[in-house]
Amino acid sequence: MNENSSGLAILGHKDYRSEYKPVWCAGCGDFGVLNALAKALAALEIPPHEAAIIAGIGCSSRIPAYTSAYGFHGVHGRALPVATGLALSRPDLTVIATGGDGDGFSIGGNHFMHACRRNVDLTYLVMDNAVYGMTKGQASPTTETDWTASKLSPQGTHQMPLHPLEIALATGAPFIARAFSNSPNELARMIAEAIEFPGFAFLQVLSPCITYRPEQLGYKKRVHAGFEPTADRTEAFAALAADDGFSTGILYRAPRPCFAPDHSGARTLEAIAADFEVVP
């Protein structure tokens, strides 16, 4: 471990990893996201004790345990409410919510929309593999209509897949991007940009589940750079209309005032506890 000119320790990406080894399947894209997240935190020189990673339920939601930052593993679909409360009460922390397409867009879909419009200063990383991997391969909200490999939908889902970037744009998210888990350096850079953005930053990460979606091994040939950052919503919607689902890059970046309540009159925990003290 080295020191910078101020005498502070310079941490490498390995310093952001915990002693626990991931239990993901071999080839899971979430390994790439974990490594990129550690690289981004190291590049930004954010000490582990000044970062908090909040997750819900699912394979990708195991990430907090695999980092040395503060972590919270919440209930299904509720990562964003927890992350929002923490970011509002502890603006000194770098708050990052993580999860999958099921956790974020199904049971957590309502929270996702309101987090976009509320615009609290936090980052939301969604590892999207269009399948429920932890519960053995059911279709998720982003699964293609004609996917027939699941025993629960052998004739396809008969439902239109949800398009997260379109929802984020429609509901007011000021930073919207897509990356690929197998492009670690680009992913680390985009995570760092999302963290530095002053407001709610949403990053969809195409993260293959080759156990239940082996055809996703072909993502490497399909993913391509395609988005150019714009602050014009009309331009962003036009880019999404032409998108094949595999374009990467920052789609939309338009800073606006964050939701941040005034803490100047906040009471201490001791003062609040005193209100409940029972006097004999």
Question: Would you write up a description of this structure?
Answer:
Helices cover 29% and strands 17% of the residues. The chain is of the alpha/beta class and 280 residues long. It has a single domain (18-275), classed as 3-Layer(aba) Sandwich (Rossmann fold). The strands form 2 sheets. It has an 8-stranded mixed β-sheet with strand order 4-3-5-6-8-7-10-9, with helices on both faces. The protein is globular. The model has no long low-confidence stretch (mean pLDDT 92).
Features:
single chain; 280 residues; alpha/beta; Rossmann fold; eight-stranded mixed β-sheet; two-stranded antiparallel ribbon; 9 helices; 10 strands; 29% helix
Helical region count? 9
Mean pLDDT: 92
Subunit arrangement of the protein:
single chain
| Level-1 CATH class name | Alpha Beta
- Poorly predicted sequence stretches spanning 5 or more consecutive residues: none
From the 3D coordinates, which CATH architecture would you assign? 3-Layer(aba) Sandwich
Order of helices and strands: EEHEEHEHHEHEHEHEHEH
| CATH homologous superfamily caption | Thiamin diphosphate (ThDP)-binding fold, Pyr/PP domains
Biggest sheet, strands in spatial order?
Answer: 4-3-5-6-8-7-10-9
Share in β-strands: 15-25%
Number of strands: 10
Number of domains: 1
Structural class, from helix and strand content? Answer: alpha/beta
What does the overall shape look like? globular
CATH topology type: Rossmann fold
Tell me the distance between the termini.
Answer: 56 Å
Biggest sheet overview: 8 strands, mixed
Helix content: 25-40%
**Computed CA radius of gyration, to the nearest angstrom:** 19 Å
